[in-house]
Fold each of these.
Amino acid sequence: MKRVSSSALVAVIATAVHLAAMGVTVEPAQAQGQQQQPPVTAFVNVNVVPMDEERVLRNYTVVVEQGRVTDMGPAGSVTVPANAQRIDAGGKYLMPGLAEMHGHTPSGAFAETVMFLYVANGVTTVRGMLGLDGHLELKRRTNSGQLIGPSLYLAGPSFNGGSVTSPQHAVEKVRRQKAEGWDHLKIHPGLTVEQYDALARTASAVGMRFGGHVPAEVGIVHAIKMGQDTFDHLDGYLEYAGGIDSPLDEAKLDHAIELTKQARAAVVPTQVLWEVGIIGVGDVDAMENYPEMQYWPQRQVRSWATRVRQQQQNSNADQARAFAENRRILLEKLNDAGVTVLMGTDSPQIFSVPGFSLHREMEAMAEAGMTPYEILESGTKNVGDYFRSQDNFGTVGVGQRADFILTNSNPLEDVANVADRVGVMVRGRWLSEEAIQERLAEIAQQMSSTTD
């Protein structure tokens, strides 16, 4: 099997950019986001899955005010304010909301629908990885509660072989994005070592993180040493250890993993998207008929199907499956070694619909040997730790941002139980599953009536 070509990668990257110009007309969810909420909400008689460690706190009361947990403890020990909205959660499970640590968002009105799709699936935090016009305003609206959506942490336009022309240009671009208010920097392929190093040193000087791909000329070892703090798509590891089109060099792979751990860097696997969109593994007919495809523009779904079928026709199926298996082994090794794993899917991309894609990603993480707690930790506590300097979230505890999923069944027993929802709370705003499904039905109707 050939190594991933730059043209194939650009095609995947272009999907997110293409969405910005799709012109899909949808009814925004802004009105829902502006509905008056009770000043206090209390979950009573609930089983709390705090995600600070692997445990369940049974029959608790959790009080939320102004978007934060203000009190929690065993039922009977916590006084529920008289003006509180009481959610009787007897037998239910309250866990932190999930995070999408490699997300994309189109610009324009369609972005509002994407924001709701995230929240509808319990995704209450998104690290955006490709800045577009209008994204900083979108962040202001969602993070302030004007629009129903996850809390956003956004990268600006990416640093790549086409957008950076020299080391000095890289320096200027870092400083400009810092001044504009972007949260972090996104790395794409094509940078030279000199350009990359200039970016890295300047990012360190101005206090900006950077993550994403590993440019081929830079390589995983040098990127780790220069301070890149997330390696998205598990990029760089198999290239270094020979596991794309040849057997893994275990010694080199172990070396790269140990360096990652020592540097306290993290990986964002995006297993499902990479297998489908880059490697070309998967049943296209089945993916076209995933239930979540009803919430996405149908011409885009058809385009995804065409692309993957062409990919499969032009590749060796056995080699593709071997590549996918090496990625599974890599994730298992990284997790077993104690490297921080952050949940992410690269949605919206090929057959990865925002929010829904995290539930499919969790299945792939389980196939790589991760336990339910480890999988959920990658999308909750680990993300809260990553953003600790900016906010407190990712666990259920006093002072934490009130981002929750209320489920009917214990998510620590099976991650599929995360989708067995009663409702979602985002920054203290409660959305019942009934309200979520009503809005999803509207979106499905709008997508089905959208003309080509």
Amino acid sequence: MILYGSDISPFTRRVAIWCALQGRAIERRPLRAMGEGWAEIRRHNPVGRVPILVLDDDTELIESWAICDWLEDTAPADRRLLPVTGVARRDCLQLLALANATAEKAVAMVYERNRRPQALHWNDWQDRLTTQIRGGLVALDAALPEQGFHGGERPDGADIGAVLTHDFVADTNPWLLEPGYPRLAALATRARALAPFAETMPNAG
């Protein structure tokens, strides 16, 4: 399978880590929608967004939540990263949704603060984004375990989402992590001891 998108995208990185933790071999094509690769990305996704996962039969899957749903649906039971059903599945998906929503707001902050010329900054919008991002980080920090992973001995989908949100914020606007989110930071540190997380760090190459 072929995965389009670079690891600066927390959504592409989610798919890469999900595949690695399930033992799936993928070819990486680290194109960025804001770069020279946009034309090629649009050939696989008319909206021009990553991630895109091209399956062995040339089927093209888009959007991280839909791709990960397919990965779960086709994985052996012992390699699934979400509980199959019930309250455990609901709670895991809700934590993943919280991480995803926070990451989306962090991406919006990058476009508004990091890429827009300072003369065109919309301060009220930045203040709202800051409130949303920090609200999500506070909630994630409160929901995570002090030791181990939300998934127990190994990371589950909620752990992946939380770590990737932390790492994206740390890489793009680290001031948003002040004054600190100790459980979230500790989870990210534990995750980096695992190759799928360490090898996909945005600054890992």
